[in-house]
Structures are given as C-alpha cells and as structure tokens.
Amino acid sequence: MPGGRILLSPKAQGETCFTSSAFDFISCLQQGETIATFSVGATVYSGTDPNPSLILSGSPTLVNGTQVRQLTTGGVNGVTYELDCTVTTSLGQTLIQTGLLSVYTTPVSVSTLGFPFGIGAFGVSSF
Question: Would you tell me how many other CB atoms lie within 10 Å of the CB of residue 74?
Fold first, then answer.
C-alpha cells in the first residue's frame, strides 16, 4: 500500500536476486490508469553502508503493468536497507512504497554440517 512499508525476505551478501516481493500498486490505480514512470532508490535504514545505492543492480522492471521489481546485489552484512519505489501514473498520481531488505552472511561451520571429525578429515579445508 502506498505510504506503507513492506518487509522483504533477507538476502545473502553474495546473492544477486530480485526482491522477494514486488512493489505492487494495483490497489491504488483507477480503472484504465497505468504506471507511466517508476524508479527505486536505496538508503540505509539501520547499520552502516557509505554507498547504499550499490545494492541496486540495474534499472527496475515493470511487471504486469502494476508491479515494480528490482534486482539487488551485494550489500553489507548486518545492514538493513530501505528501498523506496516511486511511480507516477497516467492520471498524475505519485505513489511511493517502501521495503526493508536485510543483508546477512552465513559462514559454514563444521558443527553446522555435522562432521564429527571436522572437514579436514575428508581432505577438504573449506567450502
């Protein structure tokens, strides 16, 4: 909903992927109204990243005429980003939806994998 905030599924720092949910404006459009322009920007909601816009990869895409999707990449471990999607419509509306996207890293540990003798016992030093 415009003016609202959605919680996006977290992404791993090494992933390049689309946001888990699209910014969906269908409930805000009048019959026959279309999205004319759209953009996505990124800022830091919590944590520290001196270049938050680098989490955005390329330009957003319009899906089904009512939804905006954004490819994301990288990011800083532990940072939550605020992605602001702004659209203008054929009837002159300016609508904004915000999504929160957290980035994490998941180190592989021997105890997580359940190897009783460590992974070195199998001739593998790391994954």
Answer: 16
DSSP 13: T
DSSP annotation of 20: S
Helix (H, G, I), strand (E, B) or coil at 90: coil
- Integer Cα distance of 10 and 80 in angstroms: 9
C-alpha distances in Å from residue 86, one per residue of 16, 38, 52, 109? 22, 6, 17, 41
pLDDT in tens, 23-32: 999 999 999 9
* Domains of the chain and CATH, by start: 5-122 (2.60.40)
Residue the block writes with tokens 């994998």? 113
Among candidate residues 74, 123, 126, 127, the one with its CA nearest the CA of residue 103: 74
Find tokens 């999607």 and name the residue.
85
pTM of the full structure: 0.80
Tens of pLDDT, residue by residue over 66-94, are 999 999 999 999 999 999 999 999 999 99
